[in-house]
Write a structure and sequence with these properties.
51% of the residues lie in helices and 11% in strands. It has 49 helices and 25 strands. Helix 2 links the parallel strand 2 and strand 3. The protein has seven domains: 182 residues, P-loop containing nucleotide triphosphate hydrolases (Rossmann fold), CATH 3.40.50; 87 residues; 234 residues, Rossmann fold; 177 residues, Orthogonal Bundle (PCRA, domain 4), CATH 1.10.486; 72 residues, no CATH class; 240 residues, no CATH class; 97 residues, no CATH class.
């Protein structure tokens, strides 16, 4: 009789080891025969690590009598032994490609999907949903039934599209005579259900272990049915689940909820299964930390009781270390330094150290460079998608070049892909020649007649040689692949082109070069990417066969199928630090664990992305179909909780909790809990007598885990980040800069002594292990590196430059709050020819003087690249709005009476609902604004469609919410000075203009300087009562904050009102406003049923117009107030005050977050609150307006008083 076992435990490593121990016992049994096979079934991601652990830790000679397989590979293995399956399979990448083909060839069958064909990752997402339908036992009939029952909505459209896709996919598979791997488990189930099949007799002697599946998820329907059948066939079936089945531990069951559900699933399908709960090896305190992740608190009384009851507890529990860093870069530097200290001083091996990255490793190159600098070998398990590899960029660039209307940036993308035969110096020289002589379009490069544009003979020869050597064959290949019409021919040509011996040799050399540089994981990924690409092209040749296709669509399908593929690689090297996700590290048995990147949002994750169906849709599908479907959002949150808790399950020597934020509001709950615990009990730790029982329990807890915290700060004295000679040297040189006595003799040994003294003073009450953690002790490190600086013969001390007003970095290192002024003699030539200042320039100066100086005075910028000017988008929006509103103005002005006016208004509302209107507006705007770029078919189909949607939403909102009254658009783009527009037809006439001087005839070192305010008011609406509304268009998410106006951070509307009022004193202001052009919020996204509100109602709620509507005197006061603020800023600009002292309401609004000049100004996130001016919050809107009005009235009174005196 089959013996079925269900093993429960909360340590995933312990569960694996249980299975591996049993497996090893089976293979060592001398009575075991080759006819007594054993299988251990695990997820694909765990296969390599489990095999390695089995061979390394269990004294076995190999895998002769045991196989480590996934469910899919297990099915293949059974088919090989018992028969039942023969044929060719379509691979996952082939499925993605086939889905693309189906949608492209049958766009009329779909309601939503056809719009996303060719989009990166879209077909992979569809393939994933189809796979889940099969895994959870939903067939085409079920899906069609759901589509019929759903009310008209986005949900109905999606389900209907899936039904069509399911049907067409199955027909294509049958037509191509292929098998789908996702059907393998169903085929296996059919085979197992045939009890008369004698070929399955070998299963009676087979032992099977299933582990790793029910740790962070539940079993799906396919797996449950197979497990149920195996329980009747196998000699012994063992299944592990990650949960605590002790009914007293409700909190732990909630933490490990997926495993608890899986436990109940197995009991349901195998009622007589024997259950075993493994002994809990997780140390008591680590269990308490697991529970704190969920509950946010620790039951110190119960923990202390268990601590007292257990002998030698401190030897079991991991030491907990807290590291608070200023940013991710410094976090990784400190972690690397601490690992180096552990290896050198505590004799740990690199493979005994693991790093769980809470969020994805977004910058692998940064992590690798830091670890390489510290002499550490690491393997990052986060695999790179193909789109991040040079092979993808190379193919993408080539396919873009194959399009007849490709752009210059496409050519440069190809050349700079990393696999071009040209080196970077040659590419830079080629690009510089193109920039210098105006080669802006590829046809100029392809056509030899344009070669005469290059007047310099040497550069002409260099340019010609580059084209002949590296581009001519590419242009020829692009021409040939365009000549083919059939998809299969294009795929075959691209396949042969990539397999060319020259390119293949170049690729092999690149892979070998990466290996020599220590980038083995990237080298392996690149090699695997090559195999995937070849497989994709071979399958596309088979799947598409004779279908015709355009070159652009062919490129979209190939790239869309390739982009999100992730090459599989296995860990390499015998002694390497393992860096990976929390899920990967919960299975990695290490002595030292770093948990890096902890924050309130990700440990555990509190918010994740939805899949194709959101939670409400999943619930509705389950209710109607009576079948389960995975809720990705909920499952990811539950899995994240298990991942976070499981990191504490296995005994370890030390666990480091690290955050890249100094702001405690960003810390995770567990990190904040431990920090507060340490902070509030620091003074009591060494106390002999503690009367408070609760305090004593907390102290016992702290001592049990030897809790410590370090906050790496300024590099004024050494810490772990100094643990390389290069860094030590760099940090010491930074400290050589003594501005006020820079000729004083510099003594490195003095810095060492100062550092020792400071460290000793801070650590005098700490034990030895604590001191080691806070400051490395070994002389092989920082102070030995520093000592080499003074012993290096022939090295000359670098002379510090004289204090110069043009060297703000040096000044900033010592006096962070001092104002910085430029040398007048050097500064005068930069500003003496300047005549105007705009509102945006003044706001730029108010937000950060140094940014203004770099951007507006020095005009620093990145090197130019070929791309559509983003300002052209704003010009198109302005033009389309002006054309439409001029028509509206003409219609309304010609109305004879109020009834006619109302009728015409209603006609206008009907007209702007018609989408054809916006095609005409778009085409007219192209000609009126002279923007031929937007006539390009590609730009028209991408950005053009978006512009039309934006303008349609804006016009509908404007017409309903803004043009109801008697106000009509009267002026468009009123420029000042010196251009004037008549309010009706835009014709020019000579009228009086009163300039607005920010500075007038100011004597500046012998120069008379005047600066006038200039700009463009986008729109003025007026009524018959001489009232006006001033409107400025914005293409971002601009809002009006009166606090910003009060502090001078938002000057534009106030200054515009001032200049208009000065030139039109007879008019009265009604309101001033920003009109925001953005994608409309009113989308029908996550609704099972149609939205109750109409489109117009949802659009009105979005409120595209952000206005200040107040008393005329108050708005006039805003104008005058903004003018005074602008004059103050102008005086500071002229005086050369350029301190890198940003201003804002809080740190998130500072200009630093998007500044390009951080490296120049010496930006330091830790000190930003010292550098920045953060204004105090003010009161409510009405009170701010009154305050502004009072200030202006007071100034006017003082001015009048002075005049009378």
């Amino acid at each position: 009789m089959t013996r079925n076992l269900l093993i429960a435990g909360t340590d995933p490593i312990q569960l694996q080891d249980y299975c591996l121990q049993e497996l090893a016992k089976h293979t060592k049994d001398k009575q075991a025969k080759l006819t007594d096979p054993a299988f251990i079934l695990v997820p694909d991601a765990l296969k390599a690590d489990i095999e390695k652990r089995y061979l390394s830790n269990f004294d076995v000679n190999g895998l002769m009598l045991a196989e480590v397989l996934s469910f899919q590979r297990f099915a293949y293995r059974i088919f090989m032994m018992a028969g039942g399956l023969a044929g060719d399979f379509i691979s996952p990448i082939g499925k993605s490609l086939l889905i693309q083909k189906i949608i492209c060839q049958n766009p009329d069958r779909f309601k939503r999907f056809q719009r996303f064909a060719g989009k990166t990752g879209f077909s992979d997402e569809l393939e994933k949903v189809l796979r889940d339908f099969k895994r959870f036992d939903l067939d085409e009939k079920d899906i069609r039934d759901l589509a019929e029952k759903a009310a008209p909505s986005l949900t109905k459209d999606k389900i209907s599209d899936f039904a069509e896709l399911f049907d067409l996919y199955q027909k294509e598979i049958e037509h191509l005579q292929l098998l789908d791997e996702d059907d393998n488990l169903n085929f296996l189930l059919d085979l197992l259900n045939n009890e008369n099949n004698t070929d399955l007799a070998f299963l009676k002697n087979t032992q099977i272990w299933i582990t790793g599946f029910a740790d962070i998820r539940t079993f799906n329907q396919q797996e449950l049915k197979i497990i149920q059948r195996l329980s009747t066939f196998a000699k012994k079936l063992t299944i592990t689940v990650c949960t605590d089945i002790n009914l007293k531990h409700n909190i732990r069951q909630e933490i490990f909820e997926p495993g608890q559900i899986a436990f109940e699933q197995i009991i349901a399908v195998i009622p007589n299964i024997e259950t075993i709960a493994l002994d809990n090896h997780t140390p008591i305190v680590q269990r308490a930390l697991q529970e704190a992740i969920l509950t946010g608190k620790i039951d110190f009384a119960s923990v202390d009781k268990e601590i007292q009851a257990k002998n030698n507890f401190n030897h079991d529990s991991a030491k907990i270390r807290l590291i608070t860093n200023e940013n991710p870069r410094q976090e990784w530097a400190f972690v690397a330094g601490e690992i180096k200290r552990l290896i050198k001083e505590a004799n740990y091996r690199q493979k005994e150290i693991g790093i769980a990255v809470v969020s994805e490793v977004n910058n692998q190159s940064l992590v690798k460079s830091i670890f390489r600098e510290f002499g550490l070998n690491a393997y990052i398990t986060d695999r790179l998608p193909i789109k991040n590899l040079p092979l993808y960029r190379y193919i993408e660039g080539f396919l873009q070049i194959c399009n007849p209307n490709y752009q210059m940036e496409d050519l440069l993308l190809f050349l700079r892909s990393g696999l071009s035969l040209a080196n970077y110096d040659e590419i830079d020289e080629f690009e510089n020649i193109c920039l210098e002589y105006g080669y802006r379009y590829p046809y100029q490069i392809e056509n030899p007649k344009y070669l005469n544009k290059i007047t310099n003979e040497e550069k002409r020869e260099t340019f010609s040689e580059f084209v002949q050597s590296y581009l001519q064959n590419i242009f020829q290949a692009a021409k040939e692949i365009r000549s083919y019409r059939k998809t299969s021919d294009k795929a075959n040509y691209l396949l042969n082109w990539l397999a060319d011996e020259t390119f293949f040799s170049h690729l092999e050399n690149k892979i070998e070069e990466l290996r020599k540089l220590g980038e083995e994981d990237i080298a392996l990924s690149l090699a695997a990417a090559w195999e995937i690409t070849i497989q994709l092209l071979e399958e596309s040749y088979t799947l598409f066969n004779v279908e015709n296709i355009s070159q652009a669509k062919f490129g979209e399908i190939i790239l869309g199928s390739l982009a999100m593929q992730i090459p599989n690689t296995i860990p390499v090297g015998l002694d390497r630090i393992r860096i990976g996700s929390m899920q990967e590290l919960m299975y990695y048995d290490c002595k030292i664990l770093f948990i890096v990147g902890m924050s309130i949002d990700n440990f555990p994750p509190i918010n994740t992305e939805n899949s194709f169906f959101n939670s409400r849709e999943v619930e509705w599908i389950e209710e109607i179909s009576s079948k389960k479907l995975p809720d990705y959002k909920k499952n990811q949150i539950l899995a994240g909780l298990v991942n976070a808790a499981a990191l504490f399950s296995h005994p370890k020597d030390q666990i480091y909790l690290s955050t890249p934020y100094l702001d405690s509001d960003q810390w995770s709950g567990l990190y904040s809990l431990l920090t507060d615990l340490l902070k509030t009990n620091q003074e009591k730790i060494d106390s002999i007598e503690i009367e408070d029982l609760e305090a004593e329990q907390k102290i016992n807890f702290i001592k049990a885990i030897q809790l410590l915290q370090i906050v790496p700060g300024d590099l004024y004295y050494p810490d772990q980040r100094w643990l390389t000679k290069k860094r030590s040297k760099r940090y010491v040189k930074t400290q050589k800069q003594d501005l006020f006595n820079y000729k004083k003799e510099y003594k490195p040994e003095q810095i060492i002594e100062n550092a020792k003294a400071k460290s000793k003073e801070e650590n005098n009450n700490l034990d030895k292990s604590t001191q080691e953690f806070l400051l490395p002790q070994s002389k092989t490190y920082w102070h030995k590196a520093i000592s080499k600086l003074q012993n290096t013969e022939g090295e000359k001390e670098e002379t510090l430059a004289n204090i110069s007003p043009f060297n703000p970095l040096i000044l900033w290192n010592t006096e962070r709050k001092e104002s910085l002024y430029l040398n007048p003699k050097s500064y005068t030539p930069l500003i003496q020819d300047r005549k105007f200042l705009s509102a945006s320039s003044l706001e730029n100066y108010q937000s950060c003087p140094y940014q203004f100086f770099s951007q507006n005075i020095l005009k620093l910028q990145e090197r130019p690249i070929w791309e559509i000017d983003p300002r052209d988008r704003g010009t198109m929006i302005h033009a389309m709005m002006e054309i439409a509103l001029r028509e509206f103005e003409t219609i309304m002005q010609s109305a004879a009476d109020q009834t006619t006016k109302e009728n015409r208004y209603q006609e206008w509302l009907a007209k702007i609902q018609d989408e054809k209107l916006y095609d005409d507006l778009y085409n007219t705007a192209i000609h009126s604004a002279k923007l031929s770029t937007y006539a390009d078919p590609i730009v028209k189909s991408k950005d053009g469609q978006r512009l039309k949607r934006i303008i349609r939403s804006a016009l509908i909102f404007d017409s309903h919410a803004n043009l109801k009254g008697d106000f009509l658009p009267s002026y468009f783009e009123w420029k000042f000075p010196p251009h004037f527009q008549n309010k009706k037809h835009g014709s020019e006439e000579e009228i009086f203009y009163q300039p607005l001087y920010l500075l007038e005839n100011n004597d500046y070192y012998g120069e008379k300087i005047s600066l006038e305010f200039n700009g463009i008011i986008d729109r003025i609406d007026q009524n018959a009562l001489q009232q006006y509304r001033l409107i400025d268009y914005k293409t971002g998410n601009k809002t009006i904050e009166l606090e910003k106006i009060f502090y001078g951070l938002d000057l534009q509307l106030g200054l515009y009102q001032k200049i208009w009022q000065v030139n039109h004193p007879e008019q009265k202001v009604d309101s001033i406003a920003y009109f925001v052009f953005d994608n409309p919020v009113a989308r029908e996204t996550n609704s099972i049923f149609p939205p109750k509100e109409s489109f117009n109602e949802r659009l009105e709620k979005q409120n595209l117009k952000k206005s200040i509507k107040a008393d005329m005197e108050q708005i006039n006061a805003i104008g005058e107030f903004s003018f005074q603020k602008a004059k103050e800023s102008t005086k500071n600009i002229i005086m050369g005050e350029i301190s890198p002292n940003p201003k804002g309401l809080n740190t998130s609004t500072l200009a630093c977050r998007y500044c390009q000049f951080k490296e120049i100004c010496g930006y330091d996130q830790r000190l930003i609150k010292e550098r920045a001016t953060l204004f105090e919050p003010l009161t409510e809107k009405g009170e701010i307006l009154n305050l502004i009005q009072q200030i202006i009235e007071q100034e006017e009174t003082e001015t009048q008083t002075e005049g009378n005196i």
